[in-house]
Amino acid sequence: MDEPGALHQRNGPAAGARMHGQFTDADTGRLTHALTLSDSCLTVQNISSSSPPEHLDLRDCLWSRAHRGEDQDAYLCVYLYPYRRRWMAWGPGRQRDERRFRLALRTDDNDEDANLREAERWARAINSVGRAEHAHGVLLSEVRRPRGMMVLVNPQSGQGQAMALYNRHIQRMLTEADIPHTLFITERQNHARDLVRSADLTQWDALVVLSGDGLLFEVVNGLMDRPDWEKAIQTPLGILPGGSGNALAASVHHYTRASPVWGEDLLTSCGFLLCKGLVSKLDLVSIRLASGARLFSFLSLAWGFVADVDIESERFRPIGALRFLLSTLLSLASLRVYQGKLAFLPAESERESSSAGLCGADTRLPDRLLVPLEQPVPQDWTQVEEQEFVLVLAMFQAHLDEDLRAAPDARVDDGLIHLFYVTGGVSRLMMLRLFRAMQSGKHLDLGCAHLVYRRARALRLEPLSTAGVMTVDGERVEYGPLQAQVHRGAARLISA
Ligand SMILES: Nc1ncnc2c1ncn2[C@@H]1O[C@H](COP(=O)(O)OP(=O)(O)OP(=O)(O)O)[C@@H](O)[C@H]1O
């Protein structure tokens, strides 16, 4: 047993402590815990045992709050989501860990609120530690007036489990983090687009999507449809994976540099980031189709193999993310080669605009690097010599889906189009190896002569094959010539 003096020293405030105090265990009511808050962690020492203190890393703290319990006592709650390895899981994922402490101050009979005030002081201090330095972006709490989040859920996304995911995880996380929110359940295609097009955005701190990437694509384009698009597109966006691809959610997790996670672990990770509310800039890519239609994309543009797999996998939707694997194997069996022309403006180009530019009547994010499709591309563009492609894939974020890290070096606002293409003549075996290596982002290391990677700021793609599939952010678009230009940091995303 410890000497009283040693005990005091062990439980007393360490050098650099911001706060120190004693609390009773919320369950047993015995005086047991000494808490010490430092600049990075909350140390919990069980006074009545000789066990070593526990250091809770406050980077894992979602939020802390004080409240009065049913017994009228004051409590301090700390909601933590540390990384832990789970049975049967591939790697560590964030796991919920709630700590409750009861205030043990003796109070004067006339001041019943003293304990609650003290608990509130602790909660504020813990939350301010969690809000420490952030190298990139700003905290949502710094840009928002506390109004709440619009949470859009597509109940049909993925395997139809988005509502269950909300009920099991997200509702509780947002409540614990003290973030008011309103749920909107989409009923049809373009419902989300219509909602944000006409929404009073002064009511919302952020627009959050619990779905696949398709619903966020609608939200982005709904914001850009508005007459006040310039202000509207600055509304912070949030992504929670509820679909089967979940490429943006996987990218956002990848940017934290944590080990990859899938499924509900990915949802918890994105839910945690959403509650922490660090807002970064997000690149948008303006895509102009031959019909004159204009789309705004945050994720990817695909033609050939990748687009075929995405669209053909729709019929296997009931099997979830495995639908992409099955569709990949089927598409490999009937590997197609497409004829077309590809040109791009290399990222190294110094040019800020072409002499003409594609501005016209549409004043939204002028595409100053593009010229009309009828004209040849400007001289400083690179015209790809090959005209036979198995795939062309332009990535604007790191992940193509939860499993495929197509552009591992991409960042949320790097202002780059990560352009990949695979030329005709590649073997099926090599394609299989490329996609397997893409799971860990190592496909370029295979040294495949048919795979080319370039960093670009704009591109033009002109299919010569009459039939085929093109997708933008996983959604099918009209097939034909198109061009695209990246607009660095044009939107905002709650990210790492
Ligand atoms: N209630 C609904 N019923 C049918 N379709 C809907 C509904 N709500 C939204 N949609 C449409 O479903 C399409 C696909 O949505 P989303 O991409 O979010 O999910 P997903 O396709 O399951 O995800 P993933 O792209 O990751 O596979 C969107 O184009 C959206 O407009």
From TrEMBL:
Highest taxon of source: Eukaryota
Region of interest (Disordered), ranges: 1-20
Q: Which top class of enzyme applies to this chain?
A: transferase
Query: Which compartments is it annotated to reside in?
Result: Endomembrane system
| One GO MF term | sphingosine kinase activity
**InterPro entries named among the record's database cross-references:** ATP-NAD_kinase_N, Diacylglycerol_kinase_cat_dom, Lipid_Phosphate_FormReg, NAD/diacylglycerol_kinase_sf, YegS/DAGK_C
Q: What is its EC number?
A: 2.7.1.91
Instruction: Report the main location listed first in the record.
Output: membrane
Please report the stretch or stretches of sequence annotated as the DAGKc domain.
144-291
| GO process annotations (BP) | cellular response to growth factor stimulus; negative regulation of apoptotic process; sphingosine biosynthetic process
Its cellular-component GO annotations read: cytoplasm; endomembrane system; membrane
Keywords per UniProt: ATP-binding, Kinase, Membrane, Nucleotide-binding, Transferase
Q: What is this protein called?
A: sphingosine kinase
- Give the organism, scientific name: Carassius auratus
Q: What is the lineage of its organism?
A: Eukaryota, Metazoa, Chordata, Craniata, Vertebrata
